[in-house]
């Protein structure tokens, strides 16, 4: 049975997990969907980390387009998928994502599952805090639809008028819904924007997860520690 090593998980009252790249490898699917969307803009994987990773979908579109000196009207979330507005492009990206998810399916990271099992045994509260509006469908596809008592996602952010990461608002709402102070929570994030949000919110421990060349940026954003996989925190 694993026990805490690098991080004393059970000394905290709650763990707030980002979803994509932390619980499930959906970051890979998102990257593929973004690459399809921006195929005409000389898109590279570095663009995903620099302009998109961890941000709400429309903010990611706007940030990337700004990097290419492209200006589009914002539009409306009800816009049909297309290329004429930021929202239309974001909706087209979402269609790409759901097509890939349905075709290829998803499985959670084994190391993260080990940590979740540890938290379950010790009755440590858990929440998902994700900028994605697809968080619940991804959790369901991964067989984890009932795992988390609280899910604060892109839909919640719209409904509650919350600023997206790197603002701490989404994490702070999750902590309030769990009834636990930020200082007693661990934030787990693979995105620079998410780590910055955890730091800005005054959370007790901000664990960065480097899934591919992002360690320095996560450190610079203020992560308490950075690992390649959550399994490294267990012995």
Low-confidence stretches at least 5 residues in length (pLDDT < 50)? Answer: none
Indicate the radius of gyration in whole angstroms.
17 Å
SSE class: alpha/beta
How much of the residues is beta strand, in percent? Answer: 5-15%
Annotation field: number of helices: 10
* Structure summary, number of beta strands: 6
Count structural domains. Answer: 2
Assign the CATH architecture of the largest domain: 3-Layer(aba) Sandwich
Query: What is the fourth-level CATH superfamily of the largest domain?
Result: HAD superfamily/HAD-like
Shape: globular
Instruction: Determine the CATH topology of the largest domain.
Output: Rossmann fold
CATH class annotation of the largest domain: Alpha Beta
What level of helicity do the residues show?
40-55%
SSE pattern:
EHHHHHEHEHHEHEHE
What does this structure look like?
- With 235 residues, the chain is an alpha/beta fold.
- The protein has 2 domains: 9-25 and 107-233, Rossmann fold (3-Layer(aba) Sandwich), CATH 3.40.50; 28-104, DNA polymerase, domain 1 (Orthogonal Bundle).
- 43% of the residues lie in helices and 11% in strands.
- The protein contains 10 helices and 6 strands.
- The protein has helices spanning 26-37, 45-52, 57-67, 86-104, 110-121, 135-141, 154-159, 169-178, 192-200, 215-220, and strands at residues 14-17, 125-129, 150-152, 185-189, 205-209, 225-227.
- The protein has a 6-stranded parallel beta sheet, with helices on both faces.
- Strand 2 (125-129), helix 6 (135-141) and strand 3 form a beta-alpha-beta unit.
- Helix 3 packs across helix 4 (86-104).
- The chain is globular and about 50 Å long.
- The chain starts with 13 loop residues before the first strand and ends in an 8-residue tail after the last strand.
